[in-house]
Each structure stands twice: as structure tokens, then as C-alpha cells.
């Protein structure tokens, strides 16, 4: 039988099949399908999407097919249990800055915001052959954000929250408002075949200014057993970033165009939180500039100063934790600012001079980190990075209070410009094998 509720079409096959399937729940019942067609014009499609999830989100299938574009004008949560969401079409978020600043989900880290939460277990979200997904309509946010980082209310379009055993695949996220994807308080999540692109089209930007700050590809927080593979990212911030309590994560085959690359952090920002990043393997990474923005760095680790100065999002510090058991291999970098670095002197609120005073105060620890087969070139552009100068191919600037332990480098060959004759590898308070380190003060 077929009946419709507004523009949602629900199809149920024989009742016998229903009874059988109910016995094996939460496995998906292919016989319970809800197809959502946009309401048309400027109407918000969140109500019809939610009605479909209500009907088919437990053991069924929800279809939002191509070529439809769904208007998303309010925050919403979809709960999927043993079900599938086929997202061949596009969720287009409104760019009503006032609405989103006042109506979003709070994310308990750096006062951030999210717009669409996906919760549940044993589910799949698949963009299919059209690679459907999200249009974050982010330009209004990029312009609004001019020259500022972590601006309040900029929502993350895809917040995977309190989810277990879920797969997200074949998805595109264009013009994300903020970070494209956040995996938070979740476990056993696979994110396979993603395309993320944040491009600024506001050419009133003077050259070199970056309006697309905070357009990370994916961040993980309080999550375990995550697989991130086959991604293409273009934007102005971290391609992949691990925040506190990111454990047992495999990252493979990621191509990043522009931004600071692969980030561990920031960590140690909250004095009352212990941040763990442990058991991380990263493999087959390509880093190159975009047509719009340089590759600022390649692979980097950033922990806050050991004392609390200011409050989040841009201030803080004094947090504890550890990064342990990290393997990074097969990385190819092209024209990257700073190839690999560890910076234990972070605080976005203090001036560079002020923050330098706290560079040896962090107790956050780094150990058991291994780098293999890293190739390419860096630019050795001088910078006054907050805290320390990190102009080199590799800078391992660990805190006196928590020296880095057991860092190994094998088959690492990063070229610097021909006319550059300064230091190549700089180390401080670091136990390093496989590199010719120059000391910070030497
Ligand atoms: C952010 O949240 C912290 C608490 O975690 C609070 O102290 C601070 O005032 C908030 N900042 C802003 C800009 O809302
Ligand atoms: C979707 O992703 C899977 C990998 O998870 C891939 O095998 C498949 O070909 C993709 N499907 C389409 C239609 O692109
Ligand atoms: C990202 O989008 C811009 C603008 O549409 C395009 O020029 C660029 O090639 C895209 N990047 C990738 C990696 O596809
Ligand atoms: C790497 O990921 C890209 C983008 O999803 C895909 O086109 C390519 O086939 C993948 N390469 C391998 C070796 O799987
Ligand atoms: C991380 O996990 C540890 C151990 O379970 C816990 O003590 C700590 O508060 C967690 N940190 C965060 C940021 O949730
Ligand atoms: C390090 O992490 C890998 C998985 O990323 C795991 O297989 C290995 O057992 C871990 N090693 C230690 C010493 O915990
Ligand atoms: C890291 O991997 C090792 C070896 O598999 C395991 O014993 C340990 O519990 C893992 N650490 C975390 C935080 O999951």
C-alpha cells in the first residue's frame, strides 16, 4: 500500500514481511521506505524530513533523492536506528545569521554551535552516485567572519552525535558554514568518500586575508573507533583534526587543498578536562595548495600553554592530557609552509610576546609518535607564530615541563627552497630518533 503525508510518500509492502522484519529489528527493513520531496518555493523542508524520519527512521529507509534541494531553515535532529538515509539530493542551509546565532545546538567545546544532529545506532547515510549532501551556503558566514576566528553561532552543518556503528558515505559538503563535520561522543563510525569544499567568493578580501577560517573538514571529539577514508578537502582550515578524547582512529587516502593540514588539537585548553589522543594511524595523505589558499602547514600538534589565560573559545590553557601512539606514513607535501611541527605554546588571546613567556609551562605530554615515508617540499617562509618561530621543515618544540618522548622519523625527506640556508630541523625538549636536530638556542 502507498499513502502520503504531505509530500512524504510512504510505501509498505506485505504485512507478513513487516512481522518477519520486526522480529529481527534493528536490521533494516527494505519494505519501509519514505521518500521526501521538497515542499517547494521557499518553504522549510525540515518538518517533512522529520515526519519521514518519524515513520521510517526505525528499521526503514528514508530517501531524499537527487536532484532535489531541500531548504533547511531550522536546527534539527534525526534519530536513526537500524535504518538508512539516502541523501542523493542536497540539504541547503539558510544563511540567516540572526536565526542561527540564536537557534542552534550548543557543542561543549570552544562555545561552538551545530545545525543538524544525527543520532542513533546501526545506520547508514549514503549520498549515492550523485554524491548528495550539504550546501552550507557559507559565503554569508565567510564574509561575516572577516578577520575573526571562532565567531559565536556559526553552525557546523553535520554533527554526528551519540552515535554507534554508523556509516556515512559518498557525501559532498559544499560551502560549510564552519567545520563541515563533527564526530562527537560516538563510536565505530566510518566516513568514506567525502568531498568538502569551502571557497570564498567575496573578492573584497585583500590578498592574503583568509575569510574561510574554521572551515575544517572533520573534527573528532570524545569519540572512539573512527575510520576516515577517501576524502578530498579544499578550504582554509584543518583538513582533519583530532580534539580531546579521540581514540583508535584510522585515517587513509586524504587529499587536502589549502589550510593547515592534519591537526592534533587544539588540546589542553580546559583546565578541568584531561584530553587523550591515542592510537591514531594516518596513511596516504596528499597536501597541496588550493587555487585560493596556501597549504599553511602539513601535520601539526598544538597544545595550550600550561597556565589559564582568558576563556574559550580564544583563551584558556592549563589543561592536561596526552598524545600517544601515533603513526603517520606515506605523506606527500607540495609547497607547504611548515611541514611538521609540535607547538606547545598556544593561546589565541595573548599577544605573541606575552604568550612566549609561557612556552615551557605546558604539562601536556606527547610520546610514541612515528613518521615514515614523508616526502615533498616546504617554503621556509618566516613567520611570527604565537609563541615560537617555526620556519623550518620540521619543528619539534616541546615544553620543558613535559619533554616529548620517543619520536621517530624514518625515510623523511622534506626539501627547503634552494636559496635557504637556515636550520632545517629544530628540536627543543624532544627525544628524537632519525633526524639531525638543531637545538632551539644553538
Ligand atoms: C564560552 O564558554 C565558557 C565556559 O566554557 C565561558 O566561560 C565563556 O564566557 C564563553 N565565551 C563566550 C564568548 O561565550
Ligand atoms: C559509495 O561508497 C562506497 C564505499 O563505501 C563505494 O563502494 C560505492 O561505489 C559508492 N557508491 C556510489 C554510488 O558512488
Ligand atoms: C572547490 O571549488 C572551487 C570553486 O567552485 C573550484 O574552483 C575548486 O576546483 C574546487 N576544489 C576541488 C578540490 O575540487
Ligand atoms: C582515494 O580517494 C579518492 C576520493 O574519494 C578516490 O577517488 C580514490 O579512488 C581513492 N584512492 C584509493 C587508492 O582508494
Ligand atoms: C577523556 O576521558 C577521560 C578518561 O575517561 C576523562 O577523564 C576526561 O574527562 C575526558 N576528557 C574529555 C575532554 O571529555
Ligand atoms: C597503537 O595503535 C595501533 C592502532 O592504531 C594498535 O594496533 C597498537 O596496538 C597500538 N600500540 C600500543 C602500544 O598501544
Ligand atoms: C590503544 O591500543 C592498545 C592496544 O590495542 C589498547 O590496549 C589501548 O586500550 C588503546 N587505548 C585506548 C585509549 O583505547
UniProtKB/TrEMBL annotation:
Main location: secreted
Keywords in alphabetical order: Carbohydrate metabolism, Cell wall biogenesis/degradation, Disulfide bond, Glycoprotein, Glycosidase, Hydrolase, Polysaccharide degradation, Repeat, Secreted, Signal
GO biological-process terms attached to the record: cell wall organization; pectin catabolic process
Extent of the signal sequence: 1-24
Molecular function in Gene Ontology: galacturan 1,4-alpha-galacturonidase activity; polygalacturonase activity
GO cellular component: extracellular region
Enzyme class: hydrolase
EC number of the protein: 3.2.1.67
Keyword set includes Glycoprotein: yes
A Pfam family reported for this protein in Swiss-Prot or TrEMBL: Glyco_hydro_28
InterPro entries found in the cross-reference section: Glyco_hydro_28, PbH1, Pectin_lyas_fold, Pectin_lyase_fold/virulence
Location of the protein in the cell: Secreted
Catalytic activity, reaction form: [(1->4)-alpha-D-galacturonosyl](n) + H2O = alpha-D-galacturonate + [(1->4)-alpha-D-galacturonosyl](n-1)
Domain of life from the UniProt record: Eukaryota
Family statement drawn from the similarity comment of this UniProt entry: Belongs to the glycosyl hydrolase 28 family.
Protein's job: Specific in hydrolyzing the terminal glycosidic bond of polygalacturonic acid and oligogalacturonates.
Protein name stated in the entry: galacturonan 1,4-alpha-galacturonidase
Organism: Aspergillus nanangensis
Amino acid at each position: 500500500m502507498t499513502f502520503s503525508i504531505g509530500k512524504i510518500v510512504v510505501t509498505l509492502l506485505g504485512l507478513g514481511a513487516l512481522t518477519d522484519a520486526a522480529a529481527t529489528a534493528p536490521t533494516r527493513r527494505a519494505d519501509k521506505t519514505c521518500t521526501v520531496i521538497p515542499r517547494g518555493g521557499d518553504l522549510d523542508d525540515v518538518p517533512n524530513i522529520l515526519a519521514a524520519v518519524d515513520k521510517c527512521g526505525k528499521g526503514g529507509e528514508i530517501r531524499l533523492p537527487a536532484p532535489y534541494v531541500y531548504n533547511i531553515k531550522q536546527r534539527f535532529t534525526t534519530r536513526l536506528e537500524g535504518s538508512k538515509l539516502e541523501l542523493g539530493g542536497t540539504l541547503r542551509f539558510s544563511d540567516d545569521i540572526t536565526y542561527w546565532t540564536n537557534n542552534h545546538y550548543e557543542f561543549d567545546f570552544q562555545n561552538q554551535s551545530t545545525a543538524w544532529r544525527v543520532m542513533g545506532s546501526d545506520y547508514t547515510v549514503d549520498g549515492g552516485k550523485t554524491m548528495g549532501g550539504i550546501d552550507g551556503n557559507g559565503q554569508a558566514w565567510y564574509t561575516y567572519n572577516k578577520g575573526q576566528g571562532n565567531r559565536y553561532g556559526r553552525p557546523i552543518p553535520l554533527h554526528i552525535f551519540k552515535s554507534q556503528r554508523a556509516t556515512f558515505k559518498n557525501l559532498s559538503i559544499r560551502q560549510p558554514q564552519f567545520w563541515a563535520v563533527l564526530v562527537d561522543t560516538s563510536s565505530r563510525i566510518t566516513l568514506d568518500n567525502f568531498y568538502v569544499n569551502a571557497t570564498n567568493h567575496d573578492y573584497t578580501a585583500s590578498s592574503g586575508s583568509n575569510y574561510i577560517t574554521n572551515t575544517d573538514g572533520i573534527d573528532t571529539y570524545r569519540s572512539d573507533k573512527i575510520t576516515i577514508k577517501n576524502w578530498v578537502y579544499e578550504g582554509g582550515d584543518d583538513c582533519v583534526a583530532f580534539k580531546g578524547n579521540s581514540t583508535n582512529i584510522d585515517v587513509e587516502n586524504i587529499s587536502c587543498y589549502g589550510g593547515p593540514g592534519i591537526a592534533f588539537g587544539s588540546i589542553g585548553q580546559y583546565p578541568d578536562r584531561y584530553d587523550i589522543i591515542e592510537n591514531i594511524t594516518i596513511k596516504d595523505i596528499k597536501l597541496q595548495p588550493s587555487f585560493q589558499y596556501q597549504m599553511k602547514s602539513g601535520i601539526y600538534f598544538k597544545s595550550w600553554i600550561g597556565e589559564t589565560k582568558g576563556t574559550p573559545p580564544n583563551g584558556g590553557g592549563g589543561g592536561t592530557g596526552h598524545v600517544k601512539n601515533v603513526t603517520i606514513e606515506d605523506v606527500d607535501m607540495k609547497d607547504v609552509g611548515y611541514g611538521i611541527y609540535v607547538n606547545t605554546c598556544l593561546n589565541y588571546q595573548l599577544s605573541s610576546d606575552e604568550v612566549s613567556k609561557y612556552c615551557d609551562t605546558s604539562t601536556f605530554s606527547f610520546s610514541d609518535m612515528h613518521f615514515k615515508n614523508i616526502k615533498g617540499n616546504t617554503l621556509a617562509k618566516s613567520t611570527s607564530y604565537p609563541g615560537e618561530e617555526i620556519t623550518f621543515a620540521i619543528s619539534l618544540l616541546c615544553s620543558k615541563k613535559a619533554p616529548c618522548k620517543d619520536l621517530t622519523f624514518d625515510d623523511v625527506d622534506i626539501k627547503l627552497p634552494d636559496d635557504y640556508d637556515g636550520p632545517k630541523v629544530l628540536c627543543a625538549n624532544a627525544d628524537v630518533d632519525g633526524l639531525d636536530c638543531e637545538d632551539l638556542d644553538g
